[in-house]
Prior knowledge:
The chain is of the alpha/beta class. About 20% of the residues lie in helices and about 25% in strands.
Amino acid sequence: MEEKIYDTVIIGSGPAGLTAAIYNIRAALKTVVVAGNIPGGQLTITTLVENWPGFPTGIGGLKLMMDMREQVKNLGVEVRDGLVDKVSKEDSVFKVELQDKTVLRGRAVIVAVGAGARWLELPKEKELIGKGISGCATCDGNFFRDKTVAVVGGGNTACEDAEFLAKICQKVYLIHRRDTLRATAIEAERVLKDERIEKIWDSEVIGINDQLRITNYELEKLQNIKIKNVKTGEEKILEIDGLFVAVGRIPATDFLKGLINLREDGYVILAGDTEYTTMTSVPGIFAAGDCMDDKYRQAVVAAGSGAKAAIDAERWLKT
């Protein structure tokens, strides 16, 4: 029996991966998507997506991704759930090994595994994602218009989130465990001068909904957080409507270590010196979406980069 070799193996089933699949299958390329254990990626935990074009009243994140998944399957793309354990190259073919021991082979690979928010790992945190807790201010900030919110972090993302929220929220707290910001000088200066943002220095969040205003309500909506001053040990309850966690993002690229060039934080480094703008340091491996983009972090941008990676892969395969 002749071994099946795909034209493209796409790793990831968020907006980038599924868009890449649409473009590749329509280019008559034999395409398979390795969907991961949470098909649809980060958007599946977004209650309402209002910034995806074409939906006047928005669309649920889970529905959007399930519709995209159904679309690629209807076009003829093979979709497999599961996680990739290792990628290697054998002659002119890439070998993609899944954790369940399945082996897929492809002439090109598109990495679109995304980057998840680095959470605080506190009790009740995961249950309240989408119910007051978010990892993306530009995605979910509008739901907290004229309300009180807090941002946790001290880097560029935290500062950008605080600035964005200050324009639409009644009150914004910026909570940072140090007494200086880690953001660039320009970004830090903007936040420090912004009187709409109350800075809470030398502090960390140690509890969520520890004091409830309504009995048995803790899993339905965020009400408050407990913060602790790391220098004095003083603790206090902060009443807020929304909590935005901006302490970093984690690209799911561990399986690529030693194969392609990655930054220390795991983000994919694009080659940059080739006509194929989405190609990595290994010819034939392309990258799209949040795993190579820590600046925009938007679904529509990820989808666009997925289209670019698919077109690059198609053109590269013709050479």
